[in-house]
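Hey, can you fold this one?
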Amino acid sequence: MIGYVLRRLAGAIPTIFIIVTIAFFMIRLAPGGPFDLERPLDPLIMENINRAYNLDQPLWRQYLLYLGNLAQGDLGPSFTRRDFSVVDLFRTGLPVSIQLGSMALCIALVFGTLLGALAALRQNSWIDYVVVGTATLGITIPTFVIAPVLSLVFGVMMGWLPAGGWGGGQLRYLILPVATLALPQIAIIARLTRGATIEALRSNHVRTARAYGLPAYVVVGVHTLRAAILPVVSYLGPTAAALLTGSVVVETIFGIPGIGRYFVQGALGRDYTLVMGTVVVIAVFVVLFNLVVDILYALLDPRVRYD
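Sure. Predicted structure:
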């Protein structure tokens, strides 16, 4: 297992390198620049600014300079937030995104698994129909619809919760954005769990466990759910990376200072280093969580072995 982990980590380096390369040239070749204004600056001032940010260099040299800084953990200065580096912004924004994402992920995993297992155990009953119908509705409604509706109903009309803002991470400010992130994931996990549980209940080893007279909670809790959780584990890899690195829609609508919101601002302002930093962080999270998923797969399924 240790050798497999080391090989995966070594293989992640060229993967991240390719992602960084593609993203670097795509953002640089996009129309416009970070210092393009409606009223152009004096040519001498513009020349000094370009020199300060190495934008006067050929594109290939800018690329090599960025790779050199990235290898040292330096993501560069922000072009639109002149007093901050990208690392400074992530130092404050990433914990916010991780807090929101981790809470949403835990809620989605618990409620999605319970609802999916309940629907499978009561297959073709009214409970099953309600769970499947609600889950289908939850999957089809996007977050950019859920977020303003929750904000309007519970924040503006009823006044129970703040309609937006961060509030220093107070619980009342977290409820609506966390619910917006969690609801679609609950629906997806419930559907996955239901299908996998139904299949596991029909498998030979579960039938054998029932034939030996094992209690129902042992058959379901140990033998059935252990097999049924595997598709959910596979789904959680990229999902966890997406949630923990910030949601562009949720953070923008609720005005939360996470890195998802920074990504939007950086893209609109052609803040090259801020966009690149976000791409690097997301790529690292995806690689690491996919590795965690593979390890969990081996722990949950004895048939899987990594040599």
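The chain has twelve helices and no strands. Let me know if you want another pass with a different chain boundary.
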